[in-house]
Design brief:
Helix content: under 10%
Number of domains: 1
Bound molecules: zinc ion
Distance between the termini: 45 Å
Shape: elongated
Number of strands: 5
Order of helices and strands: EEEEEH
Structural class: mainly beta
Radius of gyration: 14 Å
Strand order of the largest sheet: 3-4-5
Length: 60
């Protein structure tokens, strides 16, 4: 269960596991797909990889 701000209905609502339609492990993190209470499919990127800031090469 997590809080999500929907891009369609613009509401912040709790999303329950029963609303999750897929979980995908990607190089960028865990991509969670779920259906909002308004019926629109939403996506969320989570996990350690998503939280880690991108490292940029140091300017010399
Ligand atoms: Zn919504």
């Amino acid at each position: 269960m997590f809080l999500h701000a929907c891009t369609a209905c613009e509401r912040r609502q709790l999303i329950f596991p029963s609303q999750v339609t897929s979980l995908d492990n990607t190089d960028h993190g865990i991509e969670v797909s779920f259906t909002c209470w308004c019926g629109v499919e939403q996506h969320l990127l989570t996990g350690r990889a998503a939280a880690t800031p991108r490292r940029t090469p140091a300017a010399a």
